[in-house]
Amino acid sequence: MSVPWRRRAHLSLSFRPAQERRTGIVTPRLLRFSCSNEPLAGDFKMPAPVSQPDDPALLRIDGPIATITLNRPAAFNSINLAIAKRLEQLASQIEGDDGIRVVVLEGEGRAFSAGGDLQTIGAAAEAGTVTPVVGELLKHYHAFIEILRRMPKISLSSVHGSAAGAGMGLAFVTDLCIAADDAKFTPAYAKIGVSPDGGSTVGIVGTVGSRRALQIFLAEDNFTAQQAHDWGLVAKVVPAAELKAATRQLAERLAQNPPAAIAGTKSLVYQAATTPVKQQLDAEEHKIIMAMNTEAFRTAVKKFTSKGK
To answer: What's the rounded Cα separation, in Å, for the pair 85 and 67?
Structure first.
């Protein structure tokens, strides 16, 4: 059906460069009214800023891509209770938004994340309150990780600088990871006498297996982005100056996939290792038939079969 045209006034805005909008606040520079012939084909949707500049984690939504920015640069984006609660809130919001297909996680400042906030945790250990303090922190942070893994969207970590402890775990618990060539991953746990948390074993063991995981956690002081790539933990290593652009390019490529393809593939891949063959085949049948009942599939097949005619 053709869209009716009529002359209408519209609001035209110009915005500051992306670097000035990293906080998620879109700042209009210029407002003007003009008239033009445009189709009345639905509402115009701008990138949605949903955070304040001083929030411990920021959310920016641009079409099908949501970006979460860890925003404690002075503390190298270490994870405390405030950021854990905020991450859980943002993940819940993203999970419920059917328009989002890809979630990017990045860190503000010089590091991706230094892991748990040892100032807070150390003080709790000295005071004998480590059980309630860390328990409350991990309740919210692990809820965030659980949502990230189960949501029918692809999560992509974009890592620069240091990713240590739980920060390393966050980099690898996402579905995919892209890293700058200057990124350094530091397990850190064994050095301070503790075992991994924050989803570290979930992402790493599932990717590299138990032997390599033991090596990483107990025998590696740190390792490079290239080593992580060689082990299958990082999908792509790029020059540090190109990380933002390369992350955006990969996120846009992932977002081209229809929602049913993303959701079905992610679910099937993660359950494959622990699901009996017959049950996995049944799940594949169920997921593909669901996807074949979507308009996206019908359109894609029609386009494919019409080639060469």
So the answer is: 17
In angstroms, the CA 112 to CA 94 distance is 21
- Work out the angle between the directed axes of helices 166-173 and 130-150 (0-180°, nearest 10): 20
8 phi and psi, to 5 degrees?
-150, 155
Quick check: helix, strand or coil at residue 72?
coil
Distance CA 91, CA 98 (A): 13
β partners of residue 68: 59, 105
Say which residues have a Cβ less than 8 Å from residue 16's Cβ, sequence separation at least 6: 27, 29
Q: How far is CA 153 from CA 97, 232, 249, in A?
A: 10, 21, 17
Rounded to whole angstroms, how far apart are CA atoms 149 and 203?
A: 10
Q: pLDDT exceeding 70 applies to what percent of the chain?
A: 83
Question: What is the secondary structure of 184-244 as a DSSP string?
Answer: EEE--TGGGT----TTHHHHHHHHH-HHHHHHHHHH-S-EEHHHHHHTTS-SEEE-GGGHH
Model's pTM, two decimal places? 0.81
* CA gap 141, 156 in Å, rounded: 17
